[in-house]
Amino acid sequence: MILVTGGTGLVGSHLLYNLISQNKKVRALYRRKHKIDLVKHVFSYYSGEHEALFNAIEWVEGDLNDVPALEKAFENVTHVYHAAAFVSFEPDKYRQLRKINIEGTANIVNLCIAHKIQKLCYVSSVAAVGHTQQLDDLITEETSWNKEEDHSVYAITKYGAEIEVWRGTQEGVDTVIVNPGVILGPGYWRSGGSGSLITKIYKGMLYYTQGVAGYVDIWDVTQAMTQLMDSDIKNERFILVSENLSFRDFQTKVANALNVAPAKKEATKLILEIGWRLDWLNHKLRGKRRKLSKQLAKTVNSKRFFDNSKVKSALSFEFARIDESITKVGGYFLKDLE
Length: 338
Ligand SMILES: NC(=O)c1ccc[n+]([C@@H]2O[C@H](COP(=O)([O-])OP(=O)(O)OC[C@H]3O[C@@H](n4cnc5c(N)ncnc54)[C@H](OP(=O)(O)O)[C@@H]3O)[C@@H](O)[C@H]2O)c1
Description:
This protein has about 350 residues and is an alpha/beta fold. Helix content is about 45%, strand content about 15%. The two termini are about 40 Å apart. It binds NADP nicotinamide-adenine-dinucleotide phosphate.
């Protein structure tokens, strides 16, 4: 039996589809029942038989911080995919981020040890990989994390979660870690990842930045995860990035796919510096949620180029082109609007 945490999220739902399509026996952890409907909706993008595929999942309720519920979820499990996490860049969510991402992952790791799980796949992020000193240097799996840098609260907790996973490897849990860039996939149009970005671009964004990030298709993420789990590879991490693109390019490509106008003005360093301070004031004076923290302002304007050669050579893996991915995801977005 395979256990998938975060089964109701973007990665989890697509991973479930991938595993169920291979006739694997799968149990999925859910936290909020209403989110399960979204998984059925995601399945409907890909198959006329989506009801039957969806009904093959065994759902079990549980929070990452509820160990007795997790104990139940682990019964007769041999393999675990840990994709659940709290994704937020709001500094005042730091405690919650630590609780879910670090403590929650420690709970999963401890249960993997106790239940002698054969293999664990942990979904980390490129946010948990270090930064290079020279702008043009490619970031690899070996680029070391510098704790003195001004990381986002999300990055700190994804890094902390990885430390828990590496501890598990020391205690005998065979593990693979994937570090995806921004994941492009359909269905989650309102949640924090690429989905909400696509929604914002559709509604019309004023500004673009020259920052560069890594992007990857959701199917490449789940494909790499299952291939790594089925391989003899263990106790290694893999960057999953198809292409490094400037936010301006990404935004223009998405706007073209959605037939809307792309942003015309550049958010310069100065604009972003003013922007995060105004955002902070708005939060302090009017209780508004933080949309642009100091670290996020820095991230959207920084250029990070990722090296994807490790996974390519380990699995003879070929990534989908981002242009194709954007066209596909844009198509689902427009279909969901109908
Ligand atoms: N999306 C990206 O661009 C991206 C990029 C790099 C790495 N990642 C990583 O990929 C993983 C999956 O991300 P995603 O995009 O699928 O995120 P998502 O759509 O927000 O899904 C997160 C999942 O985690 C679950 N979850 C959150 N807190 C939980 C808790 N306390 N107990 C149990 N379950 C909990 C959520 O349950 P509910 O549905 O109940 O909220 C949901 O199923 C995360 O580890 C994320 O850090 C994502």
